Amino acid sequence: MEIKIGTFNLNNLFSRFNFAGAVDSPPSASEGGITLTFDEGSVKVRTFMGRLVKEKDPEETVTIARRIRQAMDVDVLGVQEVEHIEILKQFNRDYLGGGYDEIALIEGNDPRLIDVGLLSRLPVGAITSFQTSVHPDDPARRVFGRDLVRIEILGPDRQPLLVVYNTHMKSHYVPFHMDPVAGAAEANERRRRQAETIGAIIAATEGPDSRFVLLGDMNDPPGSPFLAPMIAFAGGTLVNSLADARETRPAKPETPGQGPGPASVNWTHRYNPPGPEFPHYEQYDQIWLSPALAPHLAAAFIDRRTRHGGDGSDHDPAWVVLDL
């Protein structure tokens, strides 16, 4: 049996509904839809750090859907930066043609309301959220700013096939009011604690012969020391399935004067810092395989963007083919 599993940061897949109001009974609708007008007192505008939270641009939504349908065409897709399960269901229905029968998402901890979720053509078993996990160095605070979810993937006969862990780790963003050096150190330490917690959870949950995948937006490259406790956990060492990934197309040449471009194909995120520094290319989006699952890796791919800013997302999606 061949199964394709991927990861894609959808970059703020928010809904367009940004109001609150009470309706006593369903209004009668003429052809063309319903328009509801609210008084000023019943309108709720949602903001984050002083900015209005708006729906994802429809053209960008079409673009990420096209990449999922045409480039990836995976059986199981872990996604990040999704507002809630309703918008993920709508995305599947309206943009993916209802191609995925199973949709999973549990609300996490992020103040920006971005969660991790999963789309699957295969049956799904138990779903476990570890959002309440804490690190011993700070037991009063939840360690995951978003979540770590464990989802059982079943075969067509509904027997256990493998397990997918999906997460979105602490970013490098430092708020403007913080010292940049101290802020960066704090973000790195938070990511290290998240990695330690993930490693501990996997060690306590999975056996030596367990077939599982850990994927998501790790916000650090595979060789980062802050991710090391997650990769080399108590039960073994995870295998980087994207180490020899192939691009769906060559990378767009770098802008003249902006450096040589990526050093290899192993990148999914491009960051162009202000000032004279050249753009950074990093493999933030990762798919790690358990030791028992790694021998089943048949191929790995990264769908390469056509624009430096990204096609519908500032992350490029990646996926693997497993021969089970």
The percent range for helix content is 10-25%
Q: What would you give as the CATH superfamily?
A: Endonuclease/exonuclease/phosphatase
Radius of gyration: 20 Å
Q: What is the total number of structural domains?
A: 1
Say how many strands there are.
21
CATH topology, what is it called? Deoxyribonuclease I, Chain A
Major pleated sheet: 7 strands, mixed
Mean pLDDT: 91
Strand portion: 25-35%
Low-confidence runs (pLDDT<50, min 5 residues)?
none
- The strands making up the biggest β-sheet line up spatially as 5-6-4-1-21-20-16
Structure description:
- The structure is a single chain.
- Strand 13 and strand 14 form a beta hairpin.
- The chain has one domain (2-323): Endonuclease/exonuclease/phosphatase (Deoxyribonuclease I, Chain A, 4-Layer Sandwich), CATH 3.60.10.10.
- The protein is built from four helices and 21 strands.
- It is α+β, with helices and mostly antiparallel strands.
Brief overview:
Helix content is 17%, strand content 31%. With 324 residues, the protein is an alpha+beta fold.
